[in-house]
């Protein structure tokens, strides 16, 4: 009887210890559970990462080289979005194929179109869509700073206990963006005025042109869904020759077919025009790379454009991190 009592006591002690440890583990896991933030684009995700750091779990739907104009949500995206604590998307019809779904999802959980919080007087009208605005706000660091503030405020609303951290981190990130804007203004300002014509695959650079006094020409419109006909291509070849354009640019998220056709068309008429580099328009560079950050993306674009069009810029960019030799 004594032996059975000892065995029962040991068993009770063992079970109690296991249950205590399990309870501690569960309590700790719940305490450490992080809000899940889903961002449609890498640019928005980069803002979340800089502001929240490791306080949240970040998921981005559209990675490097992905065209947001044509992107449609997958089945796994729907699950990810439905389980998110906060969904941040650009809006202004950038995620055109997802807009209806995201608006419906907003009836169930926080879904914020961060670009649509920017005052209308700072937005550029869209020629493609009546009553809408150009969604490529990240091309102007000053305007993008306003979106960063919207991201910060959205994070604080769902995670108020981290308000001080998010506020302090946002200040640091905004200071970096301000430095980036000053660098871009300096190097792009060194481009001779007659050379300040930026010809790319589609109209993603209008805010860039407005900020740095460049004439911006896209083969396609604001949306990559539009197609360029033979007449349009012929007119652009005429323009290249007339304005003596020496360099045109391809984009990482858009086919380079039309740009290469322009180069060949100009060549056939005796005018030499080169491809000045590959620009990041609707998506950043590869994850883990410098160009895979917002700062690196705009640094790369500004540096490549300045050098290709006759300006002065350090080949390695603002932070000595660019790898322009890859183009």
Gist of the model:
The chain is an alpha/beta fold and 327 residues long. It has 10 helices and 8 strands.
Question: What does this 3D model show about the protein?
Answer:
- The structure is a single chain.
- The chain is an alpha/beta fold.
- The protein folds into 2 domains: 36-184, Rossmann fold (3-Layer(aba) Sandwich), CATH 3.40.50; 192-326, Rossmann fold.
- 46% of the residues lie in helices and 12% in strands.
- It has helices spanning 2-32, 42-52, 75-82, 99-105, 141-158, 163-189, 206-212, 230-242, 257-268, 294-308, and strands at residues 36-39, 57-60, 86-89, 111-113, 197-202, 215-220, 247-251, 274-279.
- The strands form 3 sheets. It has a 4-stranded parallel beta sheet, sandwiched between helices. A two-stranded parallel sheet has the order 5-6.
- Helix 2 links the parallel strand 1 (36-39) and strand 2.
- Helix 2 packs across helix 6 (163-189).
- It starts with a helix and ends in a 19-residue tail after the last helix.
């Amino acid at each position: 009887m004594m032996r059975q009592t000892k065995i029962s006591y040991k068993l009770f002690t063992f079970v109690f210890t296991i249950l205590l440890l399990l309870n501690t583990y569960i309590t700790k896991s719940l305490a450490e559970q992080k809000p899940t933030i889903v961002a449609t684009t890498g640019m928005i995700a980069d803002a979340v990462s800089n502001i929240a750091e490791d306080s949240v779990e970040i998921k981005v739907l559209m990675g490097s080289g992905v065209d947001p104009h044509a992107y449609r949500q997958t089945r796994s995206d729907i699950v990810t979005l439905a389980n998110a604590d906060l969904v941040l998307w650009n809006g202004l019809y950038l995620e055109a194929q997802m807009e209806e779904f995201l608006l419906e999802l907003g009836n169930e959980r926080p879904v914020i179109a961060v670009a649509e919080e920017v005052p209308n007087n700072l937005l550029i009208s869209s020629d493609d869509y009546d009553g809408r605005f150009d969604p490529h706000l990240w091309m102007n660091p000053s305007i993008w700073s306003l979106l960063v503030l919207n991201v910060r405020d959205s994070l604080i609303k769902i995670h108020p206990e981290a308000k001080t951290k998010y506020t302090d981190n946002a200040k640091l990130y905004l200071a970096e963006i301000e430095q980036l804007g000053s660098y871009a203004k300096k190097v792009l300002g060194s481009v001779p005025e007659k050379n300040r014509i930026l010809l790319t695959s589609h109209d993603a650079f209008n805010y860039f042109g407005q900020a740095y006094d460049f004439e911006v020409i896209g083969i396609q419109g604001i949306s990559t869904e539009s197609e360029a006909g033979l007449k349009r291509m012929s007119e652009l070849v005429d323009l290249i020759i007339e304005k003596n354009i020496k360099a045109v640019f391809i984009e990482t998220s858009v086919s380079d077919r039309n740009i290469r056709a322009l180069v060949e068309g100009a060549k056939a008429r005796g005018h030499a025009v080169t491809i000045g580099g590959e620009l990041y328009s609707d998506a950043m560079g590869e994850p883990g790379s410098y160009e895979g950050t917002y700062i690196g993306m705009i640094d790369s674009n500004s540096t490549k454009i300045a050098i290709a069009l006759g300006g002065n810029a350090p080949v390695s960019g603002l932070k000595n991190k660019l790898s322009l030799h890859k183009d």
